[in-house]
Amino acid sequence: PENEVYIDVVECINLLISKTGEIIKSEVMGTIAVKSLLSGWPECKFGMNDKLQISQNNVKKANSTGKGISIEDIRFHQCVKLSDFNKDRTITFIPPDGVFELMTYRVSENVIIPFKVFCNIIETPRPDNPSIPQGIDLDLSVKALFEKTLYAQDVVVKVQIPKNAANVK
Predict the structure, then answer these.
(1) Residue 104 and residue 9: Cα distance in Å, rounded?
(2) CB atoms within 10 A of CB 118
(3) How far apart are CA 119 and CA 159, in angstroms?
(4) Is the pLDDT of residue 63 over 70?
(5) Cystine design at 137: which of 61, 63, 122, 155 (Cβ 3.0–4.6 Å)?
(6) Are the beta carbons of 37 and 47 closer than 8 angstroms?
(7) How far is it, in rounded angstroms, from Cα 42 to Cα 114?
(8) How far is CA 49 from the centre of its chain?
(9) Phi and psi for 111 in degrees, rounded to 5?
């Protein structure tokens, strides 16, 4: 396979949710990964959807609601021409062969949550001391909040278990 390039946008969403379901903290960590199988040294170029404005180290993207999305901690691979990005927000690069991270970023404001997590916790009290739980059953379900025409792949939900837990099933 010659003259092919694959671009994957991978985003990890970290959430801290209260027991009432309110979002306390949310953050997206994003990576644009490229697999380049191009012959020669072609120049590749692509841009962002909306107009971007730079505010110190952050990039603000205005949308139709007037609320901006603050893109923070942007890091580019060394092959990216930073002068083009600073001038007109295009990402111009001559890709090295193979797989590399073209760009990484973080978003911590106006995060749109793609899933709703429903959790029911049932504590089984110890027979000798009912104020201390003997076991905890966790009933967890996830509902997608995006349109049916879209899909998610390799979704992982992690639940932190205390280190002093006797066992986990």
Answers:
(1) 10
(2) 10
(3) 11
(4) no
(5) 122
(6) no
(7) 36
(8) 18
(9) -75, 125
How many Cβ atoms are within 10 Å of 122's Cβ, its own excluded?
A: 10
The tens digit of pLDDT for each residue in 43-59 reads 999 887 654 444 445 55
Per-residue model confidence as pLDDT tens digits over 95-145:
999 999 999 999 888 888 888 888 888 888 888 888 877 788 888 888 899
Residue with tokens 């029911």: 120
**Partners of 98 in the beta sheet?**
36
Distance CA 71, CA 55 (A): 10
Distance CA 73, CA 4 (A): 29
Angle ∠(44,48,49) on CA atoms, nearest 5: 130
> 109: burial class by Cβ within 10 Å (0-12, 13-18, 19+)?
middle
Residue type, 102: L
Cα–Cα distance between 77 and 95 in angstroms, integer? 9
Q: Judge whether residue 71 has pLDDT over 70.
A: yes
